[in-house]
Write a structure and sequence with these properties.
The structure is a single chain. With about 110 residues, this protein is α+β, with helices and mostly antiparallel strands. The chain is about 50% helix and about 20% strand. The chain contains 5 helices and 4 strands, in the order αβαβαββαα. It has a two-stranded parallel ribbon with strand order 1-2. α2 links the parallel β1 and β2. α1 runs parallel beside α2. It is globular.
Length: about 110
């Protein structure tokens, strides 16, 4: 399998097992636009069902849309914890980029 195919398969298996805690590490960055749309819809349904989910991502748009709490780690140090929009604003300031379509894509 390619890395994209492996990520898609792993994501599909994980979310359809109805886990109590789901750890998603950059899995939404693999695949085409259709997969990303389906994966985002599944993630939203898991959140709505009050499941515990950890999303590890540089995709700021996914963090803003899917999370209700965010932490920002830098070289193993906790930089900030709070509302996703607040954490994203401080993160983009720290890395000296603006909040644009480019920064909200997978980085």
């Amino acid at each position: 399998y390619s890395s994209g195919m492996f990520s898609r398969l792993a994501f599909a298996v994980a979310v359809h097992m109805e886990p109590d805690i789901l750890l998603v590490d950059e899995a939404l960055s693999a695949g085409d636009a259709k997969f990303k749309e389906k994966a985002a819809a599944k993630m939203k349904s898991l959140v709505a069902e009050a499941r515990t989910m950890f999303l590890v991502s540089h995709a700021l748009g996914s963090v803003a849309e899917l999370c209700n709490d965010a932490i920002w780690l830098n070289k193993g140090q906790l930089m900030m914890r709070g509302e996703p929009t607040d954490v994203i604003r401080e993160y983009t300031r720290f890395v000296q980029v603006g909040e644009s379509a480019y920064t909200f894509e997978d980085m």
